[in-house]
Specification:
Elements: H1 3-13, E1 26-29, E2 39-42, H2 47-55, E3 60-63, H3 80-90, E4 94-97, H4 100-103, H5 109-117, E5 120-128, E6 132-140, H6 141-153, E7 167-175, E8 193-205, H7 209-219, E9 227-231, E10 236-251, H8 253-263, E11 270-271, E12 279-288, H9 293-298, E13 303-307, E14 322-325, H10 328-332, H11 335-346, E15 352-354
Parallel strand pairs: 2-3, 2-15, 3-4, 12-13, 13-14
Antiparallel strand pairs: 1-4, 5-10, 6-8, 6-9, 7-8, 10-12, 11-14
Helix pairs in contact: 1-11, 6-7
């Protein structure tokens, strides 16, 4: 098994197209075509993580956080990023990052947090837009099934938990082949043709555009394929930031904070003034989630669990919600388990290893 065999599985679950604009997910170091001797799953890549990879026979490290966020202009070992890259290259260790693209998946980082907290009826807190396309194409009735099946096979027609969704309208299409045409119906230079056709409409995820169009052109009988491909403003129900869920039973604020501290392995929790109400609806966001506070309040969440709130941002709660900042590492520390869940389903007999190295740069004195 090669590096790209493993990374393609992660990208099928969390396509890189859906990472944030500032991010740098994907291959960071190494050759995707190299045979994998072992794979270490971690939150961050540090020198100690690379030492662990070497000691455990792993030449592939999959991390949540990219070690390279911006371009490297030199490799002189002048900072920790350069030293990690140098060390990985010297020891033939490939590094791959799966970051905000997996944050934005329904079954991604926030779903893992929700699972740890026992949340039910989960929904995405802030739905992603500009990720859906609508494809219209027109095929002769006798070829419509073939074209439709090819589109489905290429990944078109997915709506939430439903597959092979389409809308089909019968009608008549006209065309007149010119003398230099090679028509599937009619004659070059002949009269105008009127053909019974089907208009096929399907949704297409943004990352599937190229392969869906390829399938259309390869399976449509016409020399010139008539189609329209337009972007939609509709939010994508399967992608976005943060997650909202419901506890099985209401819990007092202090009891729930104690549960969060225990289940999330938090050393401490910074929180806003309690409201004297029970906790039932919970909003979560792995990593830096302060940008979702308005959405959490708007969704009626009793508490918002995330990290990296600045001092003045805590005032924005205004008694409408409890903000609980449990730490960046603490919100995302179970992401390697998520990688393991995804990869084990595809490669049940390969030994993926969870890193034993704590990469949390924050220490606590208590």
């Amino acid at each position: 098994m090669k590096v790209h065999d493993i990374t393609r599985v992660l990208e099928a679950f969390a396509p890189i197209d859906y990472q944030e604009s500032y991010d740098n997910s994907g291959m960071q170091v190494g050759d995707p075509g190299v045979e994998v001797t072992g794979c270490l799953l971690t939150l961050d890549v540090t020198s100690h993580v690379l030492d662990e990879a070497l000691s455990r026979g792993c030449n592939l490290v999959i991390a949540h956080h990219p070690v390279i966020f911006s371009g490297l202009k030199r490799l002189t070992g002048s900072n920790y990023v350069q030293r990690i890259v140098q060390k990985a290259i010297k020891n033939d260790i490939a590094i791959y990052a799966c970051h905000t693209n997996i944050d934005n998946m329904r079954g991604g980082v926030n779903a893992k947090i929700a699972e740890k907290l026992g949340l039910r009826e989960t929904t995405i807190l802030s739905l992603m837009k500009d990720s859906l396309r609508k494809l219209y194409t027109f095929a002769p009735i006798q070829h419509a099934d073939r074209v439709r099946e090819a589109l489905f096979a290429a990944g078109a027609g997915d709506i939430g938990r439903y597959r092979e969704c389409s809308f089909n309208t019968a009608g008549q299409g006209t065309f007149r082949p010119q003398a230099d045409a090679n028509p599937a119906i009619g004659q070059a230079g002949g009269p105008r043709e009127m053909v019974e056709e089907v208009k096929i409409e399907v949704l297409v995820q943004r990352d599937r555009e190229a392969r869906v169009l390829k399938a259309l052109f390869e399976n449509h009988p016409y020399e010139e394929v008539a189609y329209e491909f337009i972007g939609l403003h509709n939010p994508n129900q399967e992608m976005g930031a943060g997650m909202l869920g419901i506890l099985p039973e209401p819990v007092s604020e202090m009891d729930f904070l104690a549960q969060v501290k225990d289940k999330m392995g938090a050393k401490c929790i910074k929180y806003t003034e309690l409201r004297g109400k029970t906790i039932r609806k919970v909003a979560v966001c792995g990593g830096s989630g302060s940008f979702l506070l308005r959405e959490a309040i708007g969704a009626g969440a009793d508490i918002f669990i995330t990290s990296d709130f600045k001092y003045h941002q805590f005032f924005d709660a205004e008694g409408r919600i409890v903000i609980a900042d449990i730490g960046h590492y603490e919100t995302e520390q179970f992401t390697p388990e998520l990688f393991l869940d995804i990869l084990k389903e595809k490669f049940p007999n390969f030994a993926f290893l969870l890193s034993n190295t704590s990469t949390n740069p924050v220490k606590y004195f208590y």
